[in-house]
Design brief:
The chain has two helices and two strands; from the N terminus they run E-E-H-H. With 70 residues, it is of the alpha+beta class. Strands 1-2 form a two-stranded antiparallel ribbon. Strand 1 and strand 2 form a beta hairpin. The longest helix has 18 residues.
Length: 70
């Protein structure tokens, strides 16, 4: 794994607006790339004493919980 990057980069774009309100500016997050579950688990495992398999189990349980509660 590479060195972790910090901060969120955004770009500003203008919306066209309509008759009731004119154009406005909005911020949009600039994405870097897609991360797979295994990549995330391996990275966290390298930074801690928890195994990649344990981390994957926790992330899957968290995803399930959030989906159920929403």
């Amino acid at each position: 794994m590479g060195k972790p990057r910090s901060g969120i980069q955004v770009s500003i774009y203008n919306t066209p607006g309509n008759e009731q309100c004119g154009p406005t500016s909005c911020a949009r997050v600039i994405t870097r790339d897609t991360k797979r579950m295994n990549d995330i688990c391996e990275y966290i495992s390298e930074c801690s004493s928890v195994t990649s398999a344990d981390i994957k189990g926790v992330l899957e349980a968290l995803t399930s919980y959030i989906g159920r509660e929403l």
